Amino acid sequence: MSLREAVIRVIEQNRSKGCTPHRFISMTKNGNAQNLAQVCEKLLTSPDAFEQVEKAIRDNPELLTLEDEVANSLNGFGLSNEAVEQARARVEFLNRIRRGKR
User: What's the pTM?
Assistant: First the structure.
């Protein structure tokens, strides 16, 4: 799976759960941004972006996130080590929220 495919998967899964991630869609240009890797790295390292992700997970713990996709990929989609490590740490945090909601 490519980074583009992962982004599209997040968007489609979120929509199927009744949550359209407008900001994510806009920033990634629906997975078609020319600088998609840079955009994703920014999202994965931005505290402001993570606040929005955390809020969404608190509202709907079943949502798939970019953090989930990156943390669970074999190669981190070629993103920087910092972005991949941040994604992994965020998934650990989000999973604690998810467990508390079930």
Answer: 0.94
